[in-house]
Amino acid sequence: MKAFPLLSIFAAATFTLSLPLVAPGQSVEGKAWAIQLPQLELRDATVEESIRMLANKSRELDPSHQGVNIVCMAPIPTETRLNLRLTNVPLREAVRYVARLSGMRLTAGPNALLLAPGGGDSGPSGFKASPAAQAASGIILPQVEFRESTLPEALDFLVMRSRALDPKKQGVNVVLDAPPEKREAKITLSLRSVPLGEALRYAAQLAGLEVAEEPYALVVITPKPKTERARNE
């Protein structure tokens, strides 16, 4: 069952809505960073449903109620379904994850956030440490037991436990960005008194994946080739 109403395709050739101008002195990206989403949950949502939801959320949370325009500059993938759960994350980062999981990349124009064709994640810059990773290291799981669990099932459990054990009940955001075949990997794991970050890392490794530390989330991804890894270090 669809969680959100359908909308017309957001493509450059068909986008006809009147775009409100950004307030003087504030860029679109700056506004998108400033709007904080307390919670976002997408369950088997289409890309266009996800874009519509984020645009509506931005208007609700913007004191001026103008929000941030989000424009897709390519035909939206109709078969892609997104599952994403985030808490306390800037709108800009939520849009970036939707773009990333849709095989697109996020850029910013004068009056809109743009989802452009092609991959290549435009991650946040200027962060020397990952608050998400620091939070994950401080949450100790008394017990972890997986028996032939799929990777999404294992990650959902870890996120749920992180929220239950976090005194602030916020937990840690975990984003799964992996090919479909990796999602079906069976995870069998038994741990006691282990930090959340380590449990997540073990589960990812058992599926042939790794964990990338970002400011607002830990992202489970396909390992980079050794040559590319060496070039980035």
What radius of gyration results from the CA coordinates?
18 Å
CATH superfamily of the largest domain: Baseplate protein-like domains
Count of the separate structural domains: 2
Q: Classify the beta-strand content into a percent band.
A: 25-35%
Instruction: Calculate the terminal CA-CA distance, rounded to whole Å.
Output: 44 Å
- The SSE string, one letter per element, is HEHEEHEEHEHEHEHEEH
Quaternary status of these chains? single chain
Large-scale geometry:
globular
Average pLDDT metric: 86
Structural class: alpha/beta
Per DSSP, the total helix count is 8
Biggest β-sheet description? 3 strands, mixed
Please state the second-level CATH architecture of the largest domain: 3-Layer(bab) Sandwich
**Roughly what percent helix?**
25-40%
CATH top level class name of the largest domain: Alpha Beta
Number of strands: 10
Question: If you consult CATH, what is the topology of the largest domain?
Answer: Phage tail protein beta-alpha-beta fold
Poorly predicted regions are 1-22
Biggest sheet: strand arrangement: 2-5-4
